[in-house]
DNA sequence: CCTCCTTTATTGCAAATACAATTATAGCAT
DNA sequence: ATGCTATAATTGTATTTGCAATAAAGGAGG
């Protein structure tokens, strides 16, 4: 009955454990790598936007960004038109790291899907698109 | 490319945010309700077994169980044959709460799957079963 | 223009989290 | 038996997390 909902949670938690351990050597545990990936892929988001993008609490996201700024991966920049927001950009250090993060995500994705044919992957993608949380499209 | 892996993570994080908010009123935030559900459904697991079952760090799981024991939801019992392990059982308080937790999980599951036909749900279940994390079946 | 409501960023603080280390027991191989 | 290795529970500790509250700015309506 709850197989779908529970399995989705289990997959996420197992992957989180793995990624945290994997990136600890780089000092990038606790989902830090997710932030870098998102900012490199979509530079210029403001803080609340990024938090929504990664589905993480805003204060947590805020502090994580602050940490990544201190570590030299990201920079914050005031928006000229809207004084309320600060936009986030990757530094060169982040750009240089990105391929490694991308390769990790790729490897994890391939591992996850290794037992599915191309058609099955497309089918799974299609079905996941139809899922919703709290009445909202994900 | 990463749509599957990212969407699975997004769904889990959104549901976790919702469940934490929902159960806060009962003093059961932070996945506490997951522990109660698992122990009611499968009483007698020992601590490490439960931790693996919910895919959560063992020390975190240990402290959470301790908290739930203090709150009167769970009891710990030494195993007579194996002195190394302590088995976990639900109290009556947990049993009485279970229907409510079950109803919540049911409602969330139905919301998640509302746009899928029965055939699509079966298909999704089948595909999720074929996924693996770190080379291991989930 | 002024007031009210919303959005964004930020800080305080208490609780949760997880790595590392420790202790105790079990099980296996000599 | 004895030692070695693995597993389970537990604690110490530093970091992370997230709710609540605050401040500043934007936006909508009269």
Give the biggest sheet of chain A: 2 strands, antiparallel
Q: Which structural class is indicated by helix and strand composition of chain A? A: mainly alpha
Beta-sheet strand percentage of chain A?
5-15%
CATH fold-level topology of chain A: Arc Repressor Mutant, subunit A
Report how far apart the termini of chain A are. 22 Å
Query: What is the number of helices of chain A?
Result: 6
> Which percent range fits the helix content of chain A?
55-70%
Give the CATH level 1 class of chain A. Answer: Mainly Alpha
Q: Give the strand order of the largest sheet of chain A, numbering strands 1, 2, ... along the chain.
A: 1-2
What's the architecture of chain A, going by CATH? Orthogonal Bundle
Series of H and E elements of chain A? HHHHEEHHEE
Number of E-type strands of chain A: 4
Point out poorly predicted stretches of chain A. none
- Annotated CATH homologous superfamily of chain A: Winged helix-like DNA-binding domain superfamily/Winged helix DNA-binding domain
- Silhouette of chain A: globular
* Gyration radius over CA of chain A: 17 Å
Oligomer: homodimer
Largest two-chain interface: A-B, 46 and 46 residues
Count of domains of chain A: 1
Write down the overall mean pLDDT of chain A.
93
Concise account of the structure shown:
Chain A has 138 residues and is mainly α. Chain A is built from 6 helices and 4 strands. In chain A, helix 2 crosses helix 5 (92-113) and helix 3 (47-54) packs across helix 4.
């Amino acid at each position: 009955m709850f197989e779908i909902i529970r399995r989705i949670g289990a997959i996420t938690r197992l992957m989180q454990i793995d990624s945290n351990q994997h990136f600890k050597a780089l000092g990038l545990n606790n989902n830090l790598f997710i932030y870098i990936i998102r900012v490199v892929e979509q530079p210029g988001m403001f803080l609340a936007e990024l938090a929504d993008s990664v589905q993480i609490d805003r204060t947590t996201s805020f502090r994580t960004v602050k940490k990544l700024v201190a570590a030299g991966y990201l920079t914050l920049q005031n928006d000229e038109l809207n004084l309320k927001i600060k936009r986030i950009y990757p530094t060169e250090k982040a750009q240089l790291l990105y391929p490694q993060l991308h390769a990790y995500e790729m490897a994890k994705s391939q591992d996850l899907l290794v037992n599915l044919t191309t058609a099955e992957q497309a089918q799974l993608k299609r079905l996941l698109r139809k899922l919703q949380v709290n009445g909202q499209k994900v």
